[in-house]
Specification:
The chain has 21 helices and no strands. By secondary structure, the protein is mainly alpha-helical.
Length: about 550
């Protein structure tokens, strides 16, 4: 399957999953709010398994498994023995860590919060007991999926989250049917009974479990079956762990930065007065991150995943010219969409926020955080792709060091802002700091890659980015004018009057910006536009015929 078809197949699954995830986030916001204490308690608890997973394996699996599994296919058994022993070992590690983390839920909650009341800590801990078992299933999903990716079976890994969202949406529907909607949490923390907690957090864990288990069916399609093998001595685990050590260090540093950010962001809860929804905290940042990750997940992850396997093959064969070509082609494709996505979502930040919250103060608070994060979308995607280039070379040391620089900037800025920035603007400032620090990281990563493999086409890439940015600027002007004609982002204006109005506005403005961008690209970069258009139409045609 070609890179274009592989990327589109993955992107199609991701698009559906993200749309459903968007709907899930909207329902959650309608049920428990966004800038409320209960929403922050659930936000911290539901993020814990992701944080712990990232610490023990997040970057390690991506950095190590694909190159190791590609190499293992040269064995007489097509790598099956290696797969069984490696996965048995890692699954046992995940099981043990999940048990320990679940037992330690009260300690983890206190670690990730700052100045919360005992009632809010108790609620967050109750959520965490239900959510932390997700850790095991996140690990299982990643393991099974990386084996599929190493064999160029990309679709199931990207489509499995659809099932996750189906299960979670069903759980949310049941919660709303039983307990109703309370976006301002009028009942306070005392209204949270054990059955309410179980419905909300338990359905989230059940969805993650379904996402992992369904991948066993995809394994059977390519003739694989997991057979536990506990004979770990002498099967080549030591080189993999050595390679993983730097990646693990990078993830630890990243999580340390995330921990500091969460502690700082959670502290603003103490500045809320009653039902005041104008102060954004953890839950608002999570919603903004969901929107930020939508274009990244649909485009960058799909393209980078497809190119990663290809770059790993080129690296194994010593074909560095081809590796550079893949890298530049991938970054151009990412830029083509990410720059437009940045412009669209910044223009529509307030209407997008209105979909999640009702009151204008909460809409403004969330919208501002969305804008601040989106400034860093393109460099964030670049870092992701450049990391994969290093990983294909089995170099996890260099990504560790350029991540240390980014986290150092972020941690220093976060701590400083906690003393200097007012509560109302603190999470906005943290989001802006994230964008600035990631930009520094992207520039450093590109420079270090050039030192590692020589010139790789940064000048050519820069020219393409300039053309895309010019087209996106034209689209942004058109979108802003239409938004202003509809009333803009002011209190009581049509785009913010209701969720339906916000959706209609987003469709009208977004469509106009897309058309403007396409026309601009046809004029400014006809060759690249033609290549992108042929890739999309060819991929769509191929998938339809298939």
């Amino acid at each position: 399957m070609s890179i274009a078809r592989s990327s589109l197949l993955m992107a199609s699954g991701t698009i559906i999953s993200r749309v459903m995830g968007f709907a899930r986030a909207v329902l959650t916001a309608m049920a428990i709010g966004v800038t409320t204490n209960a929403a922050d308690a659930f936000g911290v608890a539901n993020q814990l398994p992701n944080n712990v997973y990232a610490i023990i394996a997040g970057g390690t699996l991506n950095a190590v498994l694909v190159p190791q599994l590609v190499r293992a296919r040269k064995h007489d058994d097509d790598g099956r023995g290696y797969i069984n022993r490696l996965l048995t070992f890692i699954i046992m590690v995940f099981l043990a860590v999940t048990l320990v983390a679940t037992i330690a839920a009260p300690l983890l909650i206190r670690l990730y919060t700052n100045g919360w009341s005992e009632a809010q800590l108790a609620l967050a801990t109750a959520f965490a007991y239900w959510c932390l078992p997700q850790l095991f299933f996140y690990g299982l999903y990643s393991l099974l999926g990386e084996v599929l990716n190493s064999r160029s079976k990309f679709g199931p890994f990207m489509w499995a989250p659809v099932l996750n969202n189906v299960v979670q949406l069903a759980g949310l529907a049941g919660y709303i049917w039983l307990f109703g909607l309370d976006p301002i949490q009028a009942g306070g923390l005392g209204a949270w009974t054990s059955d309410r907690i179980a419905w909300l957090a338990g359905s989230a864990t059940l969805g993650v479990a379904a996402q992992a288990v369904i991948l066993f069916a995809a394994w059977r399609q390519i003739g694989l079956k997991l057979r536990p093998n506990f004979k770990w001595r002498g099967f080549g685990l030591r080189p993999a762990l050595k390679t993983a050590s730097w990646s693990l260090g990078m993830v630890l540093v990243t999580q340390l930065g995330g921990l500091v950010q969460t502690i700082v962001a959670s502290g603003v809860v103490n500045d809320r007065n009653g039902s005041d929804t104008s102060i954004a905290s953890v839950a608002a940042f999570n919603i903004a991150w969901l929107l930020f990750m939508l274009p990244h997940s649909v485009v960058t992850v799909s393209i980078a995943t497809a190119y990663f396997t290809k770059m790993s093959h080129h690296a194994q064969a010593g074909e560095f010219a081809e590796l550079k070509g893949d890298l530049v082609a991938g970054l151009k494709s990412i830029s083509f969409v990410a720059i437009l996505a940045t412009a669209v979502l910044i223009v529509l930040a307030y209407p997008a926020a209105r979909v999640f919250v009702g009151e204008f103060p909460a809409t403004a608070a969330l919208g501002n955080v969305i804008v601040a994060l989106l400034i860093g979308l393109l460099p964030f995607s670049f870092v992701y792709m450049i990391q994969r280039a290093f990983y294909s070379l089995e170099d996890t040391r260099t990504p560790f060091w350029f991540t240390v620089v980014q986290i150092g900037i972020h941690m220093t800025g976060s701590i400083t802002m906690s003393f200097l920035v007012p509560a109302r603007w603190l999470v906005f400032a943290l989001a802006l700091l994230t964008s600035v620090s990631v930009l520094v990281q992207a520039l450093l990563a590109g420079w270090l890659l050039a030192r590692r493999i020589g010139p790789w086409g940064r000048g050519e890439l820069g020219k393409s980015i300039a053309r895309y940015a010019a087209g996106a600027a034209a689209a942004a002007i058109v979108g802003w004018l239409i938004l202003e004609l509809l009333g803009g982002g002011r209190p009581g204006a049509y785009p913010l009057a209701s969720v339906l109005n916000a959706v209609v506005t987003m469709f009208a403005v977004g469509s106009s910006m897309l058309v403007t961008y396409a026309i601009s690209m046809r004029l400014l970069a006809p060759a690249e536009f033609a290549v992108a258009w042929r890739a999309v139409t060819k991929s769509l045609g191929g998938i339809v015929r298939k």
